[in-house]
Design brief:
The chain has about 725 residues and is mostly beta strands. About 5% of the residues lie in helices and about 30% in strands. The strands form 11 sheets. It has a 5-stranded mixed β-sheet with strand order 1-35-36-37-38, with no helix packed on it. The longest helix has 13 residues. The protein starts with 7 loop residues before the first helix and ends with a strand.
Length: about 725
């Protein structure tokens, strides 16, 4: 049973929007354009930026606004709908113009030069180093997760701490860089910048500065726009090229509110949410979603789910509703329908829900479609009711034409979840196009039996989820550590899928919050009608910590901790997200053993594989093949690499790219291997050892008739892979 809100007038998207003017924002740090990590070219003095021959994005998406400020503060005249009519989108192929490849976020390229037959000839075309490596208090907090865009002859990207960089797509030579000077204290849990967005302003002259602009969100909560050609800030965007996203959020606490995902740009509106650091307090920053003009940076609308029916800024002296669910991952824009699809997370306190409002319960952990021009919610589809398991939707949703029989298709959206369920929904209405069922959920033991939902939705079309755990699934390198894990299994509360949280004993959450599909998302071969989904298959071993005990442990939310080099450390006493989070305002803090590691050996208590990759027939929902991904070469007891090449299936973060040549390129696993997989058989047909972890999404593009494949090897502290700053491109020999 899905929670569906429909408005006939909204579906038509024929209403005019109101656009409150952007108020003054406090100045941000003066950015630096001094090149670091690459010498200046002979014709380029240090501190200047070069201007490569970079054509603007083909077929821009939208126009600038024409609303003028009225006498009423914070409001403008309604925007003429014709000014934001849908426009053709840049095409994928030679370029990779969106974070998800194309506007549909399929991660599929029509390039077919590299095939099963010649992939073993791949060689490195170049290795570029960003120069952004952790220092000081950033040590142990880097997880860049970077995916560049390819536009014209440039690759544009952001580093872990939001340095914007352009390099030559064929040689890796640096064109320019722009450093917004993000401080270490702004790092929430990880220094991550998954990507950037690009927008071409149709009303600007072709030779105008920022005709095509690169837009990113930063860890210290700014929207920044720079010129694609030069890397210089866009003077027409906000205040000197940036917009302060702390506006109307409340107390400025570094690390509590950050942007790690690329914004969506739909009909000239930049749509962004933000990551609100998990587990800190019920009185956390708002999860508000906001729309800004892509040219001027002017505020257009806000979807503050705690203020239904209002789309402007809050009254003077107030903030957006605090503690509401947020969208930390990547939205998808539908230029034709004028909708933007938001994979929503949970409220800041993930593991206790009785204090939540009805509006929080309504909008959390679901896909929400907003009118991109007004911020009005059109429909939503919830994947968890009353989520107390941190099952945020992490994957970007994919737009596709779903086959409905008789050669007919329906415009659809594919939604993966952390529980492993894959849903196909009507893009305009949110109605399921594939069967959705309900399962009864355990009610006891629970600290809040009146809050846990009796049922939960589940996909009856396809799920990546495996069978429930049994004691015999407990595992170890020796009989002793296997026995230890079996004892822990018996001591814990485990009633199967959706076991409720408990405080007097540990409970097993399976899949864990890093299960199923996460931010790497899925890829869809739209020619072969094949979905490629990599996934994690690990449990968590959790316990709610009563408030008195949490106080004795010194667990304090981030806003009550000292700022600077020590900020945030008390909230992560266990070294992993959710390990010792205070959940201030709730009766319980939370301790999560992510991946359920053996206390002595550090090896997971469940038998491998811990991660896999699967091909699914889009026509039927049936599995074509499923295979573990990741070898044991960097894994072993006590953190000692075994160096064994056997395929065991490791945890993995990051997605894949699928090519018309019949290959799936993916890194993601913890063995530092970048591999090519035959999409028809699941066989690995090529691999290369990376110098650091490959927890990022790869891309494929073309330069001068030659196909390239690229991966960022930048590592990931949570996945325990080596940290690096490598951007590595491959091609066939010339």
């Amino acid at each position: 049973m899905n929670n569906l809100l429909l408005s006939a007038s909204a579906i038509a998207i024929l209403m005019a929007s109101t656009a409150p003017a952007l108020s003054q924002t406090p100045p941000a740090p003066e950015p630096s354009t001094q090149p670091t990590g690459q010498p200046a070219t002979p014709a380029q003095a240090p501190g200047e930026t070069s201007a490569p021959d970079s054509p603007a994005l083909e077929s821009p998406a939208a126009a600038t606004p024409n609303g003028e400020e009225t006498a009423e503060a914070g409001a403008t005249e309604p925007t003429d709908q014709a000014d934001r009519a849908p426009r053709p989108q840049p095409k994928i192929g030679a370029d990779w113009p969106f974070w998800g490849g194309d506007a549909q976020a399929t991660r599929y390229t029509p390039l077919d030069q590299i095939t099963r037959e010649n992939v073993d000839q791949l060689e490195r075309a170049f290795v570029y180093r960003t120069g952004d490596m952790p220092t000081g208090s950033a040590e142990g907090k880097y997880a860049a997760e970077t995916t560049p865009l390819k536009i014209g002859d440039q690759l544009v990207m952001c580093s872990a701490k939001n340095i914007l960089i352009s390099i030559d797509a064929a040689t890796g030579e640096e064109n320019w860089r722009y450093d917004p000077l993000v401080s270490n204290e702004a790092i929430p849990y990880s220094a991550s910048c998954r990507g950037v967005s690009a927008y071409t302003a149709p009303d600007l002259p072709d030779d105008a500065q920022c005709k095509t602009r690169v837009i990113e969100g930063t860890l210290d909560a700014r929207l920044i726009a720079v010129d694609l050609r030069t890397g210089q800030p866009c003077a027409d965007f906000g205040e000197g090229g940036q917009v302060d996203l702390w506006q109307n959020i409340g107390e400025r606490v570094p690390g509590w509110y950050a942007v790690t995902a690329p914004p969506a740009v739909v009909r000239g509106v930049v749509v962004t949410g933000a990551q609100v650091k998990d587990g800190q307090a019920e009185d956390a920053p708002s999860g508000v979603i906001r729309g800004f003009d892509a040219v001027t940076g002017e505020f257009i609308w806000a979807w503050d789910l705690g203020r239904p029916g209002e789309n402007g800024q809050p009254p003077e002296g107030e903030t957006y509703t605090r503690g509401t669910p947020n969208m930390w991952t990547t939205a998808t824009g539908d230029e034709e329908l004028g909708l933007v699809y938001l994979p929503m997370g949970n409220s800041s306190v993930d593991y206790y829900g009785s204090n939540r409002s009805e509006l929080e319960n309504q909008w959390a952990t679901g896909l929400v479609a907003l009118n991109a021009l007004t911020g009005e919610p059109i429909w939503d589809f919830q994947t968890v009711y009353h989520d107390v398991w941190d099952y945020d939707l992490g994957s970007q949703a994919t737009l596709l034409d779903f086959p409905t029989g008789g050669g007919e298709t329906t415009p659809a959206i594919l939604l993966p979840s952390k529980q492993g369920d894959i849903y196909i929904l009507d893009r305009a209405t949110g109605e399921p196009l594939t069967p959705v069922g309900e399962i009864e959920t355990p009610q006891e033991p629970s600290v809040e039996p009146d809050y846990i939902s009796d049922v939960q939705p589940t996909s009856e079309w396809h799920t990546l989820r495996k069978d429930e755990l049994l004691e015999k699934d407990m595992w170890g390198f020796t009989p002793i550590d296997q026995l230890w894990c079996r004892i822990q299994f018996r001591r814990a509360s485990y009633k199967g899928f959706y076991t409720p949280p408990t405080a007097d004993q540990r409970w097993i959450q399976y899949p864990g919050y890093n299960g199923g599909s996460d931010w790497g998302s899925v890829a869809v071969d739209t020619d072969r009608n094949i979905i490629v989904a990599n996934y994690n298959d690990v449990p968590n071993y959790n316990r709610l910590i009563p408030r008195e005990e949490a106080n004795e442990l010194g667990l304090r939310p981030i806003n009550e901790q000292p700022q600077g080099s020590e900020a945030g450390e008390n909230a992560d006493v266990g070294g992993a997200e959710g390990a010792g989070d205070p959940q201030a305002g709730a009766p319980y803090a939370i301790d999560v053993n992510a991946g359920w590691r053996n206390d002595v050996t550090g090896v997971p208590c469940t038998r491998p594989p811990y991660g896999g990759i699967r091909a699914i027939d889009l026509n039927t929902g049936e599995t074509i093949w499923d295979t573990p991904i990741g070898t044991a070469r960097r894994n072993g007891p006590f953190g000692i690499p075994s160096m064994l090449p056997m395929k065991i299936g490791t945890p993995n973060n990051g997605g894949s790219v699928v090519t018309a040549g019949g290959l799936v390129f993916i890194a993601a696993a913890t063995d530092n291997l970048f591999r090519a997989i035959d999409i028809e058989t699941g066989e690995t047909v090529w691999q290369d050892v990376l110098p650091a972890g490959g927890q990022a999404n790869p891309i494929s593009y073309e330069v001068d008739g030659q196909q390239y494949v690229l991966i960022a090897a930048t590592g990931h502290h949570f996945m325990e892979t080596p940290i690096g700053d490598y951007i590595i491109a491959y091609r066939l020999p010339e």
